[in-house]
From TrEMBL:
Lineage: Archaea, Methanobacteriati, Methanobacteriota, Stenosarchaea group, Halobacteria
Gene3D superfamilies: 1.10.3730.20
Keyword Transcription found: no
Provenance organism: Natrinema salsiterrestre
Pfam families according to UniProt: Multi_Drug_Res (PF00893)
Name of the protein in its database record: Multidrug efflux SMR transporter
Protein localization: Cell membrane
Length: 107
């Protein structure tokens, strides 16, 4: 159950990272509240996941999910650049996440 929790924690990390952009420096109340809630949920789920997954693995996967999702949504929502190099390096992060899952005990 720890890996699904870690995945959901990563999704909430994406939510708070995107929320940062919408909160405009925490100046907009509703996006700020959503961002803070997503931060808390993300950390709580990460905390539960590390009960069974080594912290180094869990943290790397959590930040990797956040990085990939935030980069993808940056492209979709904020018209960030789409280059072959950028997509290749995002893909490398995905390979790292999947690789850590498969080499970790208890996957």
């Amino acid at each position: 159950m720890s890996w699904p929790l870690l995945f959901v924690a990563g999704l909430f990390e994406i939510a708070w990272a995107i929320g940062l952009a919408y909160s405009e420096g925490f100046s907009k109340p509703l996006p700020t509240v959503g961002t803070v809630i997503a931060m808390v949920v993300s950390l709580l789920l990460l905390g539960q996941a590390v009960e069974d997954i080594p912290i180094g693995t869990a943290y790397a996967v959590w930040t990797g999910i956040g990085a990939v999702g935030t980069a993808a949504l940056g492209i979709v929502l904020f018209d960030e650049a789409v280059t072959t190099a950028r997509l290749v390096f995002i893909g490398i992060i995905v390979v790292g996440i999947v690789g850590l899952h498969f080499v970790s005990a208890g996957h």
